[in-house]
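Quick log. Single chain, no ligands specified.
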Amino acid sequence: MKIFLDTANLDELRKGASWGIVDGVTTNPSLIAKEGKPIEEQVRAICDIVDGDISAEVVATEFKAMVEEGRKLSKIHKNIIVKLPLIRDGVQACKALESEGIRTNVTLCFQAGQALLTAKAGAYIISPFVGRIDDMGYEGMTLIQDIVQIYKNYGFKTQILAASLRTTNHVIAAAKAGAHIGTLPFKTLDGLFNHPLTDKGLEQFLKDHAKAFGNK
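-> predicted structure:
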């Protein structure tokens, strides 16, 4: 499973990229706004840090405006994926942009039927939201499993990006379910490294080495 960072913060991206395990980045208008920079400036800086798919989202909600904005975003960098909301005009814009060779990420997916429509429109990526479904009292990971099964049944090429992964268990479950990509906050990525037995084991190894060899 590819790992994307869900952030527009350059410091987080630099640190994550330094580990050599980040395959791409997802952003949205909220994340960009938090950094206080114009979207084109911030996205271009992100592309300089991470060499992989970088999702940049339109803010238009009408078909023609989304297509125009998507074309503009796609020209920022060759790695840009145009992110579109899963509404009627968004799916229509997905079809139009993909027909021009502009890759799209259709976001805010909350049920498998939406994912089916998105795949038929030819999206490069579909982004179902796990954590937000959990918030409603349902099992968000079931959505990932359902989409994986549907896409497998019909040979759809759209990549499944498990979004709103808030815990390390979410990440593991998404990988087990067969998601092609998981996007997660920096804090969650950092947490995947951690286990108390790893720390305890390393401490013991170093103590044993020091006891046997001292500072030689």
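The chain has a mean pLDDT of 96.
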